[in-house]
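pinging the channel bc i need a second pair of eyes. not urgent but kinda urgent?? the chain im working w is below, pasted from the shared doc
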Amino acid sequence: MRRWLPITAILISLAPGTALAQASIEPDPRPRLPPQPGQGLPEHDQAFLQRAAELSAAQIEAGRLATDRASDDRVRGLAGELMDAHEEIATEVEALASDLGAEMGNSEGSAGAVETLGTLEGLEGTDFDRAYLEWQLRTHVELADLYQTEASQSPVTPLAGHAIRIFADIQEHVTAIRELAGEYGIDVDLSEQPPQY
């Protein structure tokens, strides 16, 4: 028993130091917790809804333009599919924003998307087809990043669920766009695209 006495004394003397070391841990100043009643939607989720609405509006407008101006039936068909998909996404985003009490601003697209759409309006034939496919690849990289980030970081279950489901759809869109763009010799660098969720 005397043999254990020194070991016990050492362990007891270390215990308070361990507790003091743990007490100095600082919590994350911006934890991602679900909103509590009366708090409203977190700022990052509000920003996601706004950006998702803007990009969907730009996709819808680009789809309308491409169904009229594309010279290749495959580009026209792809544009129609993407436009339909983004009309559904826009409806879902609007419903989520309403259900979650998010204040949405103008969702007519970002300045960059509007500028690009203006450029597309001035093109015809295969020049239009190529420019449209390049724009779609770049825009879908942004969409993938936006939805993957929301899916992995939002504490709001309905938003995270929406983002996970739409992210999978976006990955399918990217595959279809890349396939058709490859036939036009378009190789947009997608190295910035995040890994699959």
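so Residues 43-183 form a domain with the Ferritin fold (CATH 1.20.1260.10). and The chain has six helices and no strands. — does that match what u expected or am i reading it wrong
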